[in-house]
Predict the structure.
Amino acid sequence: MAKPVNAPISPWRFRIVVGALLVLALLLVWRTLTLQVLDVDRGYEFLQGQGNARTNRTEVIPAHRGIITDRNGEPLAVSTPVASIWANPQELKEAKGEWARLAASLDMSAAELSRRIERYSASQFMYLRRHMAPAAAQQVIQMKVPGVYLQREYRRFYPAGEVTAHILGFTDIDDRGQEGLELAYDEWLNGTPGRKQVLKDLYGNIIREIDAGEAASPGKNIQLSIDLRLQYLAYKELKTAINKTGAKAGSVVIIDSESGEVLAMVNQPSFNPNNRSQLIPDAMRNRAVIDMFEPGSTVKPLTIVAGLESGKYDPETVINTNPGYIKVGPKVLEDHRNYGAITVAEVLKKSSQVGTTKIALSLDEHDVWGVFNRFGLGRSTGSGFPGESNGMLPNRPNWRAIERATFAFGYGLTVTNLQLAQAYSVFANKGMFQQVSLLKRTEKPVKQQVISAKIARQVVDMLEEVTELGGTATRAQVDAYRIAGKTGTSHKAEAGGYAKSRYFALFAGVAPASNPRIVAVVTIDEPHGDYFGGLVAAPVFSKVVSDALRLLNIAPDNLEPEDPKPKVKGDSAA
């Protein structure tokens, strides 16, 4: 057999093959350059962007809200970590077979989930459930349903619940202040979220952190003037009194007279800020700073101040209240009985309308108004509480006689519980006025002398007689302490005049009378049965002030045994 002969390769064919290989190599190099180096149409930047868009994410780092504490550092409002489940509806609708299982894990029906997905079908984001416990949310994510993701957040929690609800207010689901001090100091309390770059897999799980980015900045803390121990005690006593009297509502405010700090502020009815599923709007109002009422006889001491300042009167000046009533214009103003000739001090002790009217009508009405104004009535206390009422202090160019008389014993003007407490702190502060504070003070407050220290002391001594035998407020007494204060029972205004059977029962006072440190005001709105301030509000004052004096370790100033407290109803009228 003949051997095969190897035909020589044609030079032109060789060149074509080599050229083709070179062209392919050049194309490969060119493609590599366009993908990795050169930024041409749909080049490396475009492709890197597309890749990053599918795997790189900017993760928000939630910032917790600042803590609110009481004056002793006890937490009143804290932020706890929670998790929210959200979804991309466009991805989730492709996993329809998982809907029933997903709905069950979220504690909702499959039909409800289906409706929500349909409603947001054109969107790329919707919440499935907010503020879940982190462990429960993690179980949902572990189901690896396409389009379902986890978002970490914080939720506000209030350890004292309804006891501090009216002061603190609450935040919304996005942790922004909506009521109370949460709203007033929202910018201060609210933190700044951080951000970081992370790499996620197909299921949204974080594989690794690419860039630490910007750290979250937590909100600033706030320390209130409130003493949580006293807040609890005042709340308990007020709630007990409201239940006992069947009253519509009530408030108690306690102030440290030295610093002007509010030690307790409670209201009834209240609400639980941790469970707002069945909120009643009427129960959410901080009545102590928002509700206005006519103060009745509790402002008679201010009229007495005007009388003492005029030089026409001193505590022993005799006022003839015979025959137990006085006619002013067409109106007849009556006392509970004919007290006859009594001193100015006894006018307060007996809460005599006739005596107060005679003093007021003997004075310049603008001088009386000036005292009320100097005591802070008719203007904000400066507490900074959202929605605080200014009250109403009428200032007429010409006063009718009946207007002068009724103004002197607390009608025709309105105050808030906090305003009245601030006014009584003038007596406790030796005649100096200071603004109240809901925040713990680190510096001494600015004080202004508005009446002389001598007159302030005289009025405190007269108010002490109100709580003694024969006065209208014997039920305000506190064992081992001297108490000074004034009862008030005011008719509630209604269309066309005043209601005949609806009242505000009040008591305002200071303790201990020898050197006042505590100022407290109690208001009971529409008590049933007994309605006099001495019968309804004074006992609440006695209990909460007793607690406050002992908690603050204030030394007793009356260690001599007291006479038994009388139970005669007439002695407890306002």
Remarks:
- Residues 11-36 form the longest helix (26 residues).
- The first strand starts at residue 56 and ends at 61.
- Residues 564-572 have pLDDT under 50 and may be disordered.
- The radius of gyration is 37 Å.
